């Protein structure tokens, strides 16, 4: 087992939880931020927080087990473990669906700009979030209960790349449209700015999806391997870096607010007001 | 012993729960697995996975940059619009187009600063609207229709979208809005200069 040092683990987890909590507090306190878009960002922050919380609790649990404070075979512990599994799958599904909701919201904002306020009212956004979280909770209970079956693992792992692909398509379409608009404006001015701005758009989009992919894919692969080849030595070697995968998920919780929430000047100014 | 085996078999299948079974996981999971006689390196899956992921991300990045580079070249778009401006200033009153073009370029600057990506549909819609209105307007006040036509679009876009409070989103729009704002702020002085040069050339011609 490749072990991540405890201090690193807890620092990363605490940083993730703190950051997402700050985002939530900022959105709640500032009335200007009561917009559908920020609600979706909040939902992403909540799912990141759940993920970090899960990892922290699990680690505390392991430490307590090793120190012998808890009997690690009791029924209560098993139930606690199931509850934590549920929380973790909820966090993963919540992240995926929140990203999807953010992408769809931005898509509607660009392509239906004039009707955006009729299509995406606050109430509808809250309803959508409620539906998403109910669905995630339901399916994560199902997955946690039936995690032994191959029938749950395979759809779960297929859902992951499918969602990523869909989100990628949405963003690419938006990106292409932004490029045609940039061309229209640049046709009235000098157009040398093009290459750099388009490169920047490509970089931003790659960072978005790349971060999500790099942070969650190792774990999804781990689940697949545990299901299908637990005794193969190659698979066992991969599974030994499970703690690193967990740390990566918490890094995702830290990076996500930076690339979504902190891009908004309004949110940044709310932070400054909170601390100064 | 058999009871313990049963527990270990179950834990091997519990994909996500390895917290309180971790210490058992270590003892019973890796016991039967022997690392002898491996043809490839022990960590081959790990290395292969990460290399594959890196390749995929880089590939995606290149696909995206390629998408940005394909399409009509920029010079074709620039020239006909400049010719259109010259035609407008020929036909119209010379005092007013100068102002209106300056207002136009300022509006371009404002528009691109705050509403870069969102005027797309507006431009399309208002374009169609204005084209239908263009006919009767042509005889009377040409400069009012031609040159501020697009500035009118942008102005209406500005007014319309400030209601939507979308500028919040625009500033957070991650598709290089910050970069484009920075770059396009430097554009209006260029526009102003080019327009004033054109104006002076038309005045000398006339």
TrEMBL record, chain A:
UniProt topology in membrane: Multi-pass membrane protein
Residue ranges annotated for the G-protein coupled receptors family 1 profile domain, each copy included: 19-260
GO-annotated molecular function: corticotropin receptor activity
Main localization (coarse): membrane
CDD domains assigned to the protein according to its UniProt record, in alphabetical order: 7tmA_MC2R_ACTH_R
An annotated GO cellular component: plasma membrane
PROSITE patterns referenced in this protein's UniProt entry, alphabetically: G_PROTEIN_RECEP_F1_1, G_PROTEIN_RECEP_F1_2
TM regions (residue ranges): 12-28, 35-54, 86-104, 125-148, 154-178, 199-221, 241-262
Annotated localization: Cell membrane
Keyword Lipoprotein appears in the UniProt entry: yes
Key words of the record: Cell membrane, Disulfide bond, G-protein coupled receptor, Glycoprotein, Lipoprotein, Membrane, Palmitate, Receptor, Transducer, Transmembrane, Transmembrane helix, Ubl conjugation
Pfam families: 7tm_1
UniProt cross-references to InterPro entries, sorted A to Z: ACTH_rcpt, GPCR_Rhodpsn, GPCR_Rhodpsn_7TM, Melcrt_ACTH_rcpt
Known partners and oligomeric status: Homodimer. Interacts with corticotropin (ACTH). Interacts with MRAP; this interaction targets MC2R to the plasma membrane. Interacts with MRAP2; competing with MRAP for binding to MC2R and impairing the binding of corticotropin (ACTH).
Protein role: Hormone receptor primarily expressed in adrenal cortex that plays a key role in regulating adrenocortical function. Upon corticotropin (ACTH) binding, facilitates the release of adrenal glucocorticoids, including cortisol and corticosterone. In addition, MC2R is required for fetal and neonatal adrenal gland development. Mechanistically, activates adenylate cyclase (cAMP), the MAPK cascade as well as the cAMP-dependent protein kinase A pathway leading to steroidogenic factor 1/NR5A1-mediated transcriptional activation.
Record-stated family: Belongs to the G-protein coupled receptor 1 family.
PANTHER family reported in the protein's UniProt record: G-PROTEIN COUPLED RECEPTOR (PTHR22750)
Protein name: Adrenocorticotropic hormone receptor
TrEMBL record, chain B:
GO MF annotations in UniProt: corticotropin hormone receptor binding; signaling receptor regulator activity; type 1 melanocortin receptor binding; type 3 melanocortin receptor binding; type 4 melanocortin receptor binding; type 5 melanocortin receptor binding
GO cellular component assignments: endoplasmic reticulum membrane; plasma membrane
Keywords for this protein: Cell membrane, Endoplasmic reticulum, Membrane, Receptor, Transmembrane, Transmembrane helix
Membrane-spanning segments: 43-67
Keyword Cell membrane belongs to the record: yes
GO BP terms in the entry: protein localization to plasma membrane; regulation of adenylate cyclase-activating G protein-coupled receptor signaling pathway
Subcellular location: Cell membrane; Endoplasmic reticulum membrane
Topology relative to the membrane: Single-pass membrane protein
Family matches, as Pfam families: MRAP
Keyword Transmembrane belongs to the record: yes
Family: Belongs to the MRAP family.
Protein name as it appears in the record: Melanocortin-2 receptor accessory protein 2
Source organism of this protein record: Buceros rhinoceros silvestris
